[in-house]
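Deliverable D5.2: sample structural annotation.
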Amino acid sequence: MRLGQLIKHHRRQSGYTQRQLAALVNVHHTTISHLEADRITVSNKLIEQITQQICGGEYTSEDLCIIGGIFDMAAVIKLANSDPIICRLLRKLPTLPEHKIVAILEVMIAEEKEEII
């Protein structure tokens, strides 16, 4: 499930319309619509605000991005917490083709393993 689909799923479970959620996070309702359709990427801050509204502490914004992808949560959270640039890159991953995501993560994990050794 992609990030936009996860946001839509949790928004609906929370009982919010797109307009209601948009009002809560102070954006236009079309921003929520485009985000749910995976047509746009948004700031980390907005993802965090949306996550707080729709997940009620069940998930962090990082969790949604990871669940929306294809990768190991523990490894990605460790990498994301280690560098803000990596964290921003991970926010963009759901918009990249799967083979590019895998290649990026393989390099990142290999570099992380080298630092441990």
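Annotation notes: The chain has a mean pLDDT of 75. The chain has two domains: 3-65, 70-116.
The annotation will be released with the project's public dataset once the embargo ends.
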